[in-house]
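We close this part of the discussion by returning to an individual protein. Part of our work consisted of pairing the sequence of a single chain with a tokenised description of its backbone. No coordinates are needed to read the tokens, only the vocabulary itself. The amino acid sequence and the backbone structure tokens for this protein are reproduced below:
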Amino acid sequence: MAAGYPIDSVSNMYPAMGGYVFRLCAVLFEGLEFDAAVLRRAVRHVAPQFPVMCSHLVKTFFGYRHVPARDLDVVAFGEPPVQNPEMFDTDKPCFRLYIRGRRLAMDVFHANADGVAAVTFLKALLTAYADMQKGRPALPAVVPPERDLLDPYKLYYKPVKPAKLLEKPAFWGPLPAPKNGNYYIRFSTFTMDAADLRRQTKPQGFSINDFLSAAVYFAILRATDAGKSDLPVSLSVPIDLRAFFGSHTQRNFAYYTNIRFDRDVCGADFARAMQTAHDGVRKAAGEAGVRAGVATTYLAANNPVTRFSPRAAREFAIRKAYRHVAGGSITTTLSNLGAHRLDGAAGELVERLELYLGAGYRGFNTSAVGLNGRVTLCTACGTDSPVLEKALLDVLETRGVPCKWEHFAYKNRALIEEPQEILLDK
């Protein structure tokens, strides 16, 4: 990329000085710890391959421009700062690396890269780091599974007390009024193919997500009381690795947008606001040349939803408010579903789990049907896996759906059991 390449005009909706930082994490296993000297050499080694990641922002009369960074000393020790690091008008690139024993955190300024570019850089950096190790055994696993790369809430912040689960997901009925009147509304959009993503992503790493987020935001404003300039609507675009990878076994990527607003302010226009926002997302995606699907999640305020981000759905979305249970999770994937529609399957599954496990079962969260008929279901480690399997089979058998069962068991965010595939086709 040529020096001084201007930032995409779409990003002006998120001015550089008001930008935010997203964080990626990597962990070394078997007691190994990061060596700062080797890591600094690895940064200098991979820097020429990533001119955008290794550039910094300079403010000009016409906005911000990328300029190659001269100082690549971005490695520090300790915990990352809670506030965004200062990344402007310096000679250092717009990312920082923080070492704490076997953990490595990378803060990336969102205007410099999206999640895909940042993960690609991190993987290349860790690969170079492993190659530069001298006199040490080969690293068994430098990068944990993609789904566990990003967990800043557990690693760096005190856990948030989960909100009480909704009695019924709002997907199947009216929303119960929350205590503080606030809701989080999640719009999930996805690109059908990575080629679309590459065509719509500028060299500096901006994605279509910025455009879609702004479209949703303004659609909400138009659909609600336009006379209130202080409408309590705030927009955030959480960067989640699981979202950016989407179904990482395929060539698809998903993007998520969170919108928080006060339902009481919207009043009778609540449903119309949601429909208008949906239409805005679809229109924005169409104008950008990206095939996108939209699904909505209604979640009680203060629910730590970003710990487990659901994937986007092509035909429908299975949604339920989440509860976080410490110690890990059990992830179950059903694939080879083909063209079978599973509308309402989530509701049946929840009812059967409550029937088998009782009302006090330790939480349940599920993602949507992914592209090419892939379903991922997550439960807490406290849930008995055979019971979950029985509930799933009961639901699927009543619908005559063939599937493949893949079971992953996690403990303390580390893979402790090899994936197993059991073919359930009859």
